[in-house]
Amino acid sequence: MTAHENADATPHGDALDKIDTGSAVVTDDGFENPGFPPHKPRQTDLDPQKEKRAERQVFGWFLLSMVGSVFAIVAYFAFPITESDLGSVRLNNLFLGLGLSLGLLGIGFGAVHWARQLMSGEEIAEDRHLTRGTEATRARAVEIFKLGDEESGFSRRSLIRNSLIAALALFPLPAVFMFRDIAPKEDAVEAIAHTMWEAGTRLALDPTGTPIKADDVTIGSAFHVIPFGMDNHAHDYLDQKALAVVLLMRLPAEDLNEVEGRRGWSYDGIVAYSKICTHVGCPVALYEQHTHHLLCPCHQSTFDVTNHAAVIFGPAARPLPQLPIAVDDEGYLVAQSDFTEPIGPSFWERQNHVNNDEHVQVLGQNTEDRA
Ligand code: FES
């Protein structure tokens, strides 16, 4: 309904007509509906040349948006962030931000300009109606929708419509390139398949780096352990440490239920397991010495140390990887090898990285080994 139609209508008569269709709200308000002020046509309504120019301007905004989106992608590669170079971060952020801003602003300004200059400028009043109208109301809604399409020129002005669609389609592309680069370039599982542990590496206290003698580990104790000799000034020290951290515990040797093939992986009741939870990688830091359970504080996965850290509760899908240990000539605890499987969260690809010659599978008591 246009302003003129609305102004012409007698409020009560109009509403009473609509009661049958369920689209009217009857009010006891004694004031007469003043209607809308008379419609003032815009320059673009009167002059086809100006209308054409406005159309080109809208196209220009959408084109600018496309240029901005493409520029953001190009800038992302042309100004890469290099490690320890704050200047490169500034340049990358500056040009990436400029491109993304142009991409979004172009769409925004184009849409506003289109609405203000080319879409119908007449005010309309819409009566409130019941949630589901009658067939007549629904038919009217379709009619209004078509009218809106006709007045906005969405179907008719193919240049604007198509450029808007193209701008909207291009705008998310920079995000695709940025998120793609978050993933490691190499095989993601390969990055966690190997740690600094190797045959003969002594087990050392975290964070002091003091090597641990088997005699120092009393029954019931639990140590946080890193490989001996880690260079804490190395640029990848924290990455390497995060992969290699281990929990070392000693329990009465007779309490260990070791499976065939893993009997030689412990030393006199001393066992070592990766500290990285096999659920989503939190540090498993809580040891209950009475129950011999290891608990992950994040989602309460519980691992049974007497049974090769098998999962007995929680969302973790597989036991904590065990580090095979032994004792060297001087009585220090040493690793027999690296872990025989990738540490950390379970991925379907990780099976390809399990060392099948050395790895001995362990099943949980009430959890299947799913990965
Ligand atoms: S990360 Fe350990 S239970 Fe979720």
TrEMBL record:
Location in or out of the cell: Cell membrane
Molecular function terms from GO: 2 iron, 2 sulfur cluster binding; metal ion binding; monooxygenase activity; oxidoreductase activity, acting on paired donors, with incorporation or reduction of molecular oxygen
The keyword Transport is annotated on this UniProt entry: yes
Residue ranges of the TM segments: 58-79, 91-112, 159-179
InterPro entries in alphabetical order: QcrA_N, Rieske_2Fe-2S, Rieske_2Fe-2S_sf, Rieske_Fe-S_prot
Keyword terms, alphabetized: 2Fe-2S, Cell membrane, Disulfide bond, Electron transport, Iron, Iron-sulfur, Membrane, Metal-binding, Oxidoreductase, Respiratory chain, Transmembrane, Transmembrane helix, Transport
Membrane-topology descriptor: Multi-pass membrane protein
Main location class: membrane
One GO term describing the cellular component: plasma membrane
Signal peptide location: none
Domain Rieske, first and last residues per copy: 243-334
Region (Disordered): 25-50
Biological role: Iron-sulfur subunit of the cytochrome bc1 complex, an essential component of the respiratory electron transport chain required for ATP synthesis. The bc1 complex catalyzes the oxidation of menaquinol and the reduction of cytochrome c in the respiratory chain. The bc1 complex operates through a Q-cycle mechanism that couples electron transfer to generation of the proton gradient that drives ATP synthesis.
Family under the similarity heading: Belongs to the Rieske iron-sulfur protein family.
The protein, known as: Cytochrome bc1 complex Rieske iron-sulfur subunit
Organism, as annotated: Agrococcus casei LMG 22410
